[in-house]
User: What shape does this take?
Amino acid sequence: METYKLHAAQPILATKLYIPSPRPNRVPRPRLTARLSVGPHPIAAVTLISAPAGFGKTTLVSEWVNDLRVMIDDLRLDGAKESQIVNPKSKIVNRVAWLSLDEGDNDLARFLAYLVAALQTVAPHVGVGALNLLQSSSPQSLPVEAILTDLL
Assistant: This one.
C-alpha cells in the first residue's frame, strides 16, 4: 500500500485517493448519473453529494465517472476528433480528484492534507504552497485561510 507524507505526523494512505471501480452487482441508476452529467449549473466545477452512510454515494459517483470515461474512450476509438470529445464536462471527468473520508479524518489538518493529496493526483502543482504551510505549522495553529487561498 502506497503512503505519502504530507504533514509532519500524518502519512496519507493512497487507497483513499483511488476512485473505486463500479461493483458488478450494483443497481444502475441512469436517472441519477444523467443528472450528474448535466449538473445543477453548466459551469459548476464542484458537485457535492450528501446522504447518510449506506445510501450509495460512492457507488453512484464511481459509476458516473466510469460511464463517462467509457463513453469518451468509445468516441476516441470511433475516430472522433479531440475537439469533438473534449467539452467542459469531459475535461472535468478526465481530471477527477477522489477523496474517501471516514470518522478518523475528522481533524482539520488531516483533512487539508488529504484534500491537497487528492488534488495533486490530477494537478501535481496545485497546493504546493498549502502543503508548505501544512508542513511548517502545528495542527493547533493552522493558517486555514492562507491554505484555502492557495488552493484557489
